[in-house]
Amino acid sequence: MSNLTDIKTGSIIKIQGQPYLVVWNEFNRKQMRKPVMRTKLKSLIDGSTLDKTFLAGESFDFADIERKRCQYLYTTDGEANFMNNESYEQFTLPANDLAETLKFLKDDTEVYVTLYESRPIGVQPPVKAILTITETTPGVRGDTATGGSKAATVETGAVIQVPLFIKEGEKVIINTETGEYVGRTSE
């Protein structure tokens, strides 16, 4: 049985068969009362949040979560296909659930897949992606009324904001967490 003080920010707890990440926790011990642990939890399955107070003596389990290096292969028929780099086993995840992640992934990109009870539940892409600009309007010298940026489409179909000097065919570095332009590269 786990103890209240084992609950820490970043730990993953199983509640009603679902894994929850502890986003915030606070230990309270008041006079003449049993200690409690107040927490804010985020579901690793659907992203919902939950406020839960654990009482002294209440039992709970930590979730069995593992991360594996995998390779994103391709997307077809609404399914994103991945391959485990160790066992070469292939699996699919619904593309709708990964829409934000997939818009910066090229075929054969290495990612980390989060597994819960040996079932894939999430994908973490590399922090930075190098993508080629496929479509953008030419920048007009002196046109800085819009803050010096313009919309550009990259090879995966995502639309990002880039500086005015970026041209079609250039390779740019994109932060996959924020979707922002970081720089350009000659790779």
Verbal overview:
This protein has 187 residues and is mainly beta. It has three domains: 8-62, SH3 type barrels (Roll); 67-124, Nucleic acid-binding proteins (OB fold (Dihydrolipoamide Acetyltransferase, E2P), Beta Barrel), CATH 2.40.50.140; 128-138 and 147-185, Beta Barrel (OB fold (Dihydrolipoamide Acetyltransferase, E2P)). The chain is 2% helix and 53% strand. A hairpin with a 7-residue loop joins β2 (18-28) and β3. 15% of the residues are buried. The mean pLDDT is 88.
What order do the helices and strands come in, and which of them pair?
Layout: E1 12-15, E2 18-28, E3 36-43, E4 49-55, E5 61-62, E6 65-76, E7 79-84, E8 90-94, H1 99-102, E9 109-116, E10 119-124, E11 128-136, E12 149-154, E13 159-163, E14 171-175, E15 180-185
Antiparallel strand pairs: 1-2, 1-5, 2-3, 3-4, 6-7, 6-9, 7-8, 9-10, 11-12, 11-14, 12-13, 14-15
